[in-house]
Design a protein that fits this description.
This protein is 34% helix and 27% strand. By secondary structure, the chain is α+β, with helices and mostly antiparallel strands. The chain has an 8-stranded antiparallel beta sheet with strand order 1-2-6-7-10-15-16-17, covered by helices on one side. Strands 3-5-4 form a 3-stranded antiparallel beta sheet, with helices on one face. Strands 8-9 form a two-stranded antiparallel sheet.
């Protein structure tokens, strides 16, 4: 930098101009830029974008990976040694201590189960597995009613008791199976966001498997732009673009993960009350909430409810949501009044 200044001075330029050029060159590296790290976690991918003047990508990625590894080792049903797997494997009906992160997710999950009258239920795992959408892998044929009835005896969020003072969990039946796949990714997004904020980063977009949390604005005061996918199973297309800041976003749909038997499509979204995949016309729902864990869980609950019931629930509880319903001629959009302001023009 000094060498450049001396070379310019040798050209006998005015001192004020030399100083301006020197300051301009010196400040070029101190502008806000969007930094990005990416990777794999929880059987999917993650992306973390943030606004910073400094290139700290390696340190940020190490911190993000540590947060995600800790959550995965606590809540995964695919890892036999995870904290959740050990709880599922235990046949004890006594109070068992759990980590603060697992307790927080269970507390949120049971709270939302009560509010949604069981549409969201983290104990539905045996039915998810029975229908071939869990760790045990795909099935060729739909299970018969007797097997469904048998597995339904094992489910029910009311079989989970929580002791917030001692941070303990108790199962009411020995073979209760808890599956947090409909809330853990959202919780992980929140924890990554908290990690960024602990590092002084307050403008970011965190995404894990399609669940997101946005804070602040991009450089030049621009919103983060999020694409809502069109629920077409044979192609990938954008249904809508939304502009967001200071909000969490989660989308759930039945158009990617399913199997077919004799012309009937069976969705991966299982209704805990019937023990079967949903059969209504809701193809996709996008939910906005203050935390991504809540948005993630509500998106699943709304898929179980269907458009009419979910739309009414959203209106009554002040939740902004965007629904895409299947019709005989294509798709129809339904959204709460508050969602409109997020839609890109």
């Amino acid at each position: 930098m000094i060498k450049l200044f001396l070379q310019l001075k040798a050209l006998k330029w005015p001192a004020a101009m030399l100083l301006a050029i020197f300051l301009l060159v010196g400040c070029q590296k101190s502008i806000d830029e969007v930094r990005t790290v990416q990777g794999l976690t929880m059987g999917t991918s993650y992306s973390v974008k943030w606004v910073s003047k400094d290139d700290e990508t390696q340190a940020i990625q190490r911190g993000v990976q540590k947060v995600l590894a800790d959550i995965n080792s606590s809540m995964s049903t695919y890892i036999d040694s995870s904290e959740l797997s050990r709880l599922n494997q235990s046949e004890s009906l006594d109070w068992e201590p759990v980590s603060s992160s697992l307790f927080d997710v269970l507390r949120l999950s049971t709270h939302l189960s009560e509010k949604t009258e069981g549409a969201f239920d983290v104990t539905v795992g045996p039915l998810v597995n029975l229908w071939g959408f869990g760790p045990e892998g795909r099935v060729i044929n739909a299970p018969d009613q007797s097997r469904i009835a048998a597995e339904k005896q094992r489910i029910g969020y009311t079989h989970i008791s929580l002791n917030p003072i001692q941070q303990q969990v108790r199962k009411a039946i020995p073979d209760l199976y808890i599956d947090l796949s409909a809330v853990a990714k959202g919780y992980a997004v929140d924890m990554v966001a908290s990690h960024l904020e602990s590092k002084g980063i307050h403008r970011y977009l965190v995404e894990i498997g399609g669940e997101l949390r946005a804070k602040g604005l991009k450089p030049a005061g621009k919103h983060w732009r999020i694409a809502i996918e069109s629920p077409q199973s044979d192609t990938r297309a954008v249904q809508r673009i939304i502009n967001v800041k200071d909000i969490s976003i989660a989308t759930s749909g039945d158009y990617r993960n399913y199997f077919e038997e004799e012309g009937v499509r069976f969705s991966h979204t299982i209704d805990p009350l019937t023990g079967k995949p949903i059969t209504h016309k809701l193809a996709s729902v996008t939910v906005l909430a203050s935390t991504c864990a809540e948005a993630d869980a509500l998106a699943t609950a709304f898929m179980v409810m269907g458009v009419d019931r979910a739309h009414q629930y959203a209106l009554q509880n002040g939740i902004n949501a965007f629904f895409i319903r299947k019709t005989d001629t294509g798709f129809e959009e339904v959204y709460t009044p508050g969602f409109r302001k997020y839609l890109a023009k």
